[in-house]
UniProtKB/TrEMBL annotation:
Official protein name in the record: Aminotransferase class I/classII large domain-containing protein
Comp. bias intervals (Basic and acidic residues): 25-47
Domain Aminotransferase class I/classII large residue range list: 107-444
Record bears the keyword Nuclease: no
UniProt KW Transmembrane helix keyword: no
Organism: Polytolypa hystricis (strain UAMH7299)
Family: Belongs to the class-I pyridoxal-phosphate-dependent aminotransferase family.
Gene3D superfamilies assigned: Aspartate Aminotransferase, domain 1, Type I PLP-dependent aspartate aminotransferase-like (Major domain)
Coiled coil start-end: none
Length: 479
């Protein structure tokens, strides 16, 4: 058999491929906004290449970093205040915190391929930590209930890969990377569960029961919640787990569990592990790691805790998805997970980050923002740009997340527009009708000097929008 010529051709589209289901014309605000046009251009279509999806997905952090890089961020990041990156400060100068390793020995075994579910000593250490902190007097987890993964997103991808045909519900707003992850797989249908701004985006147990009653068999949420900074705590979390038991798999992203300010910063943390009845029959998957709690995002060491059958499947998925976590860093992590050491570390973490949270809230209040509720967890502020006193004049045109973000670039300040947290798998909805459009997520993860620099820039943008005089030497970037 012979073939003459190419049997597959890639045709150049005559119009931009739209990734949003937009049947109506753009609003005048969007038409006149370079930022809105740039956002659409970056997400709606690109030049075709054989075998390449013409649409480019990116998380909010990636998109904002790309825009900041166009203004010089990559050339001189130290001169910027990056309040967009979801990372904690990583230096060893937090009072009461243990020093992180500056060098790691590499054993002969660490030079070899490691098990895709992680090395047994680290899996045992994770199980022991959870048993000591959350399972006293209850059935304990074993190493077979733990899967080590190369970072949280890799863990979520593994979970998504092993799910059966199902409806998966997720709250809005939530962690922006979920959106693209939920678009990749066809073994489940992603169903949004919008939460109400009026009651602080609270996940009510009754709402979970409604989702399950209409067919949901998997529920995914961050807890503590990114980006709102709220925590679902007991007894409400226990009630949600009771509702899910035997009816739905509950996936709890607990990466911010250490950043808990609700208990007086006593070092205690909250986890769904406390409410599990049977570690091998309760379909609860808990994902956490060194990234946030231990301020080691570069290590890419995380874990998934759950029933043994799930863990076996997750280990198998690692063999074709990512190959497993770095073995030398797994070995180095074992000693960090001693339960009393972790408790001391969490207390130091909570005291330090609560101080930063209070500083940011105070500064925003002085600028004129009305903070409706103080976050009791994470290191994020979900900032309502319309909640200013006095209100900005309409001509200011910075009361939506995209334009506010763009205005801050001239001050070398980065935040993440709220629309990235209005999760939109497969881009079925028009995000410019989003209830998150007038929000930004502001991180107080960086060190205090960076926070001060960033808030100074925010204050200048607001002053300029109100018509106040801002001296030229106060502006960080000249157009």
């Amino acid at each position: 058999m012979s073939f003459s010529g190419r049997r597959v051709s890639v045709l150049s589209p005559t119009t931009t491929i739209r990734r949003f289901s937009t049947s109506k014309d753009l609003s005048e605000n969007e038409k006149s906004s370079a930022t809105h046009r740039q956002f659409r251009d970056a997400h709606e279509g690109h030049k075709p290449h054989a075998g390449l999806d013409a649409s480019r997905a990116s998380t909010g952090v990636v998109w904002t970093t790309e825009r900041a890089s166009e203004k010089g961020f990559l050339e001189d990041p130290a001169s910027w205040a990056n309040l967009g990156q979801g990372a904690p400060e990583a230096d060893d100068d937090i009072e009461g915190s243990f020093p992180r390793p500056t060098s790691i020995p590499i054993t002969s075994a660490a030079r070899e391929y490691g098990p895709t579910a992680g090395i047994k000593p680290l899996r045992e250490a994770v199980a022991h930590l959870y048993n000591e902190h959350y399972r006293q007097g209850k059935q304990g987890y074993t190493w077979e209930n733990v899967c080590i993964v190369p970072g949280g997103r890799a863990g979520l991808i593994r979970i998504a890969a092993i799910l059966g045909n199902s409806y998966l519900s997720f709250p809005i707003p939530d962690y922006s990377a979920y959106s693209e992850m939920l678009s990749l797989f066809r073994n489940f249908a992603a169903v949004p569960m919008p939460l109400s701004e009026a009651d602080g985006y609270h996940i009510h147990p009754d709402k979970v029961a409604e989702e399950i009653a209409r067919g949901t068999s998997v529920l995914l949420t961050s807890n503590p919640r990114n980006p709102t900074g709220h925590l679902i705590n007991n007894p409400e979390l226990a009630k949600i787990q009771d509702i899910c038991r035997g009816r739905a798999t509950l996936i709890l992203d607990e990466f911010y569990a250490g950043y808990n300010y609700a208990n007086g910063c006593d070092g205690l943390t909250s986890s769904g592990a406390e409410n599990v009845v049977d570690v091998n029959t309760d379909d609860v998957l808990i994902i956490d790691g060194l990234t946030k709690r231990f301020r080691l995002p570069g290590w890419r060491i995380a874990w998934i805790l759950g029933p043994k059958e799930f863990v076996d499947a997750l280990g198998s998925a690692g063999s074709y998805l990512d190959g497993g976590a770095n073995v030398p860093f797994q070995e180095a992590a074992i000693s960090m997970l001693e339960p009393s050491l972790v408790h001391t570390e969490m207390k130091a973490l909570q005291l330090h980050f609560r101080e930063k949270r209070n500083y940011v809230i105070d500064r925003l209040t002085q600028i004129g923002f009305k903070i409706k509720d103080i976050p009791d967890a994470t290191f994020y502020i979900w900032l309502d740009l319309t909640a200013l006193d006095p209100p900005l004049p309409p001509s200011a045109n910075i009361s939506d997340g995209l334009n506010f973000f763009n205005a801050l670039l001239s001050e070398k300040v980065i935040v993440v527009p709220g629309i990235f947290f209005d999760l939109n798998p497969a881009k079925r909805r028009d995000l410019f009708d989003s209830p998150c459009h007038h929000f930004v997520r502001l991180s107080y993860g960086p060190k205090m000097d960076v926070l001060k620099k960033g808030l100074d820039g925010i204050e200048r943008v607001i002053r300029r929008a109100r018509g106040d005089e801002v001296l030229e030497d106060e502006v960080a970037v000249q157009d």
